[in-house]
Design brief:
single chain; two-stranded antiparallel sheet; 12 strands; disordered N terminus; binds 3-methyl-2-oxobutanoic acid; TIM Barrel; alpha/beta
Length: 298
């Protein structure tokens, strides 16, 4: 997809703005997997802000407004304290910043588990107030009735099994799942239940590879792996992890750049300039008309 540079007249800022194009739909993403095979893997990354969405949109099929924003944006210890209002604010920003990818917003802990009705009320707010295409929720068999309830009422649902971070207090940590037969069988049963309930895709997180492959073969809808297997029908990463913004890198993350170092170096150069009174220079200051070094700046 080409990127054009346009002047955004509402902000007077020139953004590289992807030329508006038709967004992918959830049925199109679901249809990537047909007869058990996926010719073109589904590409998903997390996005939390409008600008991040603008930069990622052209490259992704799905943008996930993950509740990982609790740790990544807000410095919280886990995703448990994240609220529906936080997800809605960031979901709306990501929808505003994207034109191509379908946007999926995570349902935060406590906004859907108590009943299908509660889940519908929360999910309806998310869809109405963000303009996103679908929601994601964690949990397998226990959430199947809720998934079916939402799907029957017009809300596309992405499931999430294996390592489910909202359950960190029950799981006791973020270790890989499915290492023993009972746990592996449970994760398989969870994925099957979500698939049968009508989920359009299922995230498999932090699961030993043979189980991820077995689930991908067993269920009809696409699997999206994170710490799972390249044989899943698609992949997702937390964008800030793969950009190298954090010192601690989970084993399943491939770091594609070192943005933390770039930011640190730029901030150090800026600080040096300020302390040496090199910034602002003539190019960044305003002068009375006729006295500017470049008339356009005056
Ligand atoms: O919250 C999140 O970012 C997620 C992905 C890691 C799948 O759920």
């Amino acid at each position: 997809m080409s990127t054009t540079f346009q002047l955004d007249t509402s902000t007077s800022r020139a953004h590289p703005t992807p030329a508006p194009m038709k967004r992918l739909t959830i049925p199109q993403v679901r249809a990537r997997k047909a007869g058990g095979t996926t010719a073109e893997p589904v590409v998903m990354l997390t996005a939390y802000t409008a600008r991040q969405a603008q930069l990622l949109d052209a490259h992704c099929d799905l943008l996930l407004v993950g509740d990982s924003l609790g740790q990544v944006i807000y410095g919280l210890p886990s995703s448990v304290p994240v609220t529906l209002d936080m997800m809605i604010a960031h979901g709306a920003a990501v929808v505003r910043g994207s034109y191509h990818a379908a946007v999926v917003v995570d349902m935060p802990f406590g906004s859907y588990e108590a009943s299908p009705e509660m889940a519908f009320a929360s999910a309806a707010r998310v869809l109405k107030e963000t303009g996103c295409a679908a929601i994601k929720l964690e949990g397998g068999e226990a959430m199947a009735e809720t998934v079916a309830f939402l799907v029957r009422r017009g809300i596309p649902v992405m499931g999430h099994v294996g390592l489910t971070p909202q359950a960190v207090n029950v799981l006791g940590g973020y270790n890989a799942r499915g290492r023993d037969a009972a746990e592996a069988d449970k994760i398989m049963a969870d994925a099957r239940a979500l698939d049968q309930a009508g989920a359009f895709a299922v995230v498999i997180e932090g699961v030993v590879e043979p189980i991820a492959i077995a689930i991908t073969r067993a269920i009809a809808c696409p699997t999206i792996g994170i710490g799972a297997s390249a044989q899943c029908d698609g992949q997702v990463l937390v964008t800030d992890d793969m950009l190298g913004l954090f010192e601690r890198v989970p084993r399943f993350v491939k770091v594609y750049d070192n943005i933390a170092e770039t930011i640190g170096k730029a901030a150090a150069r800026y600080a040096d300039d300020v302390r040496a009174r090199r910034f602002p220079g003539p190019e960044q200051t305003y002068q009375p008309r006729g006295q500017a070094p470049d008339d356009k700046l005056g």
